[in-house]
Amino acid sequence: MDGRIVDFEDAHIHVLNHTFHYGVGVFEGIRGYATARGAAIFRLPEHVRRLITSAKLYHMPIPFTAEQIERAVLETQAANDILPSYIRPIVYRGEPSLGVKNSKGKVSLAIAVIPAKKYLGEGSEEGVRAKISPFRKPHSDAIPSFAKASGNYTSSYLAGVDAQKDGYEEAILLDQNGFVAEGSGENIFLVRDEKLYTPGLESDILLGVTRKSVIQIATDLGYPVVEKLISMNELLTADEAFFTGTYAEIAPIKEISHFSIGEHTPGPITREILAVFQKAIRGDEPKYRDWLSIVPSLATRPLARARK
Ligand SMILES: Cc1ncc(COP(=O)(O)O)c(C=O)c1O
Fold first, then answer.
1. Residue whose CA is at the smallest distance from ligand 1 atom 15
2. Which atom of ligand 1 lies nearest, measured to the CA of 205?
3. From the alpha carbon of 187, which atom of ligand 1 is closest?
4. Catalytic residues
C-alpha cells in the first residue's frame, strides 16, 4: 500500500473514504503464472498503461511512475508465495471525504496478490452457459468504458447476478443500441466461416488485454479478425463463441439464452487459439515470450525485505 508491504490483516482504509462511497476508483486485474523461467506476470506493461489511462479519465494522478508501478507489482508477487495468482492493483482516495466533487484528495495505490481460481467455474474450458442480460452496458458518454473503474462494476454486478440466479455462468450485455458488447467481466468473440468477429469500441467495451492477445494469436494463425457492430442474431447463429478476460482467460461458450452455439464446444478454432494462449502464458511459445515479465528473485527485492 503506497510503497509498503502490508500484511493481509492490516490492509485497512477509513470507512468514509471517497472511493467506497462513490465508486471513483480504478483498478486492474493481472495474472501471475508459473513458467520454466520462474514466476511471471502476463502483459504487465499493458495493464499498467491501462491503469494510468483509467486514472487520468477520473482525475486521479497516480503518485508513482509506470516503472514504479510495474516494479511494485513484481515485488508484491515476489513477497507472496502464490501461483497462479490474481493481482489487483487499485487506485483510490482512501482518506475520509464525503464531498462528491473530490478531485484533489490524496490518491493512493494498493496492490493485492491472491490465489487465482477458475473464474467461470470448474470445467469452464469445456464451455459455459451465458444469458443475454436485461441490463445493458452504460453508454460511454455517461460512464467511460475505456476506464476500468470501480463504479462500472455495479452494472456488471447486476447483469452477472441476474444470470447466476437463472443458472448461467455469465451474462452477455448488449450496448445501448442493442448490439453485443461484452460479458460482465470479459470481452466476447464469435467465429463464422473461419473468421473471427468481436465488438469494437463503439459498443462501449473495455479494451481487454486478453482480447488484444487473442487478436494477435488469431491473426498469426491466419484467421482474419473483424471488429464491428454485432447483432444478437449473429451471435446466436455463430459457429463458435468464446469469452476472453484476465481472470476467465479463454472460456468457450456452449449456450446463450437457450440457444446452443455450434456443434461442439470448444469449436476447432477456439481450441486452436486456446492451445496457443496456454503455451503463451506458460512461456512455452517463443513468439510471445515478451508478453511475460519475470518476477525477480528474493535477493533482489528491497521492498519485500522492508516488510514490517
Ligand atoms: C467488463 C470487462 N470487459 C472485459 C474484460 C477483459 O479485459 P482483460 O482481458 O484486460 O482482463 C474485463 C476484465 O478485466 C472486464 O471486467
1. 185
2. 3
3. 4
4. 148
Burial 77-96 (b: 16+ CB within 10 A, else e): bbbbeebebbbebbbbbbee
In order along its 308 residues, the chain shows pLDDT tens digits of 999 999 999 999 999 999 999 999 999 999 999 999 999 999 999 999 999 999 999 999 999 999 999 999 999 999 998 999 999 999 999 999 999 999 999 999 999 999 999 888 888 888 999 999 999 999 999 999 999 999 999 999 999 999 999 999 999 999 999 999 999 999 999 999 999 999 999 999 999 999 999 999 999 999 999 999 999 999 999 999 999 999 999 999 999 999 999 989 999 999 999 999 999 999 999 999 999 999 997 544 444 443 43
* 160 contacts: CB under 8 Å, gap ≥ 6: 170, 171, 184, 185
Closest of 103, 107, 83 to residue 95, by C-alpha: 107
Q: What pairs with residue 40 in β-bridges?
A: 33, 294
Tell me which residue has its CA closest to atom 1 in ligand 1.
185
Identify which of 207, 210, 247 to mutate to test ligand 1's pocket (most ligand atoms within 8 A of the CB): 210
**260 touches 254 (CB < 8 A):** yes
Integer CA distances (angstroms), 156 to 92, 134, 146, 185, 217, in order: 20, 12, 15, 7, 27
